[in-house]
User: Which sequence fits this backbone?
């Protein structure tokens, strides 16, 4: 008797190796996967402009050149239409300089990275007329400032064709992987969320027809393989830690060879051991334990110098 559908994602011919730079952009699911990659010893840049959900808003990180036009004021704080709420300042000029630095850092990272993972969260867009595009965050501004629309696949595809053109100009060899976040946007409504996810799936399908763009089935693994509310957090919207770990293991299987997976498993064990709290740090045994632990880490990093600790 079977209790789960059999599903094995296609293995990528291009593999992530230790020392490779990896960028993750998009929804909060990108942050979850980035945490696992960092814990596994990889060089990772994740969401430098904060968590962003809509494909056009993510593309704007690369396509927007008039950063001054993105600045808005709320009370005594300044924000940007292309960034999440975590990116702010009390001075507009300082915020513009910060945005320039972030964009330059992203471009530099794209120029030297081997992989770019992009996670789309929703096709519902909040458009601001003065900005002239989809905003990354409404920054608690009045609803009257925005038009909420369900973006068409055609429009989002056009934006990402332009973004990919710029990405491949910067780095012709970068591997771009799209995925759809399994996080449900229930505030839009259950039916509306499914309509949104359907458009994102169609968008990634169109984009994946372009070589060497590929697709990783995060959404399908949670919705069609795990398929149980016990794999969600208490809000019944976000994947549980167990579910995220399962999806990450699938990502490892797809994009890493067996040798790399064995090394990253050792990295995670050593890091977990390093975080272990000693009950009696003043004791001789504790001191000996610390010395042995540090020696193991030092020897491991000497053997695998490309591991980012």
Assistant:
């Amino acid at each position: 008797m079977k209790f789960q559908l059999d599903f094995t994602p296609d293995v990528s011919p291009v593999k992530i190796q230790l020392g490779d730079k990896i960028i993750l952009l998009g929804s909060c699911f990108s942050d979850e996967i980035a945490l696992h990659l960092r814990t596994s010893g990889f060089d990772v840049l994740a969401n430098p402009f904060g968590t962003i959900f809509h494909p056009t808003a993510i593309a704007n990180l690369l396509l927007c050149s008039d950063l001054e036009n993105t600045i808005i004021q709320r009370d005594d704080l300044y924000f940007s239409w292309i960034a999440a709420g975590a990116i702010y300042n009390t001075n507009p000029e300082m915020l513009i300089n910060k945005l320039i630095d972030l964009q330059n850092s992203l471009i530099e990272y794209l120029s030297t990275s081997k992989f770019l993972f992009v996670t789309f969260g929703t096709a519902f867009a909040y458009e601001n007329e003065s900005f002239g595009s989809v905003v990354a965050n409404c920054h608690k501004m009045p609803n009257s400032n925005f038009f909420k629309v369900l973006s068409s696949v055609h429009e989002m595809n056009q934006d990402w064709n332009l973004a990919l053109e710029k990405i491949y100009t910067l780095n012709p060899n970068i591997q771009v992987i799209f995925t759809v976040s399994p996080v449900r946007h229930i505030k839009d409504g259950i039916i509306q969320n499914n309509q949104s996810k359907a458009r994102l799936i169609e968008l990634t399908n169109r984009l994946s027809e372009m070589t060497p763009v590929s697709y990783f089935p995060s959404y399908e693994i949670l919705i069609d393989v795990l398929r149980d509310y016990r794999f969600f957090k208490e809000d019944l919207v976000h994947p549980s830690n167990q579910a995220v770990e399962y999806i990450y293991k699938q990502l490892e299987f797809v994009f890493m060879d067996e040798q790399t997976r064995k090394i990253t498993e050792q990295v995670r064990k050593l890091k977990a051991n390093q975080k272990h709290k000693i009950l009696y740090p003043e004791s001789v045994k504790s001191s000996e334990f610390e010395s042995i632990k540090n020696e193991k880490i030092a020897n491991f990093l000497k053997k695998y110098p490309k591991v980012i600790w």
In short: The longest strand covers residues 21-26. The CA atoms of residues 137 and 178 lie 21 Å apart. The radius of gyration is 21 Å.
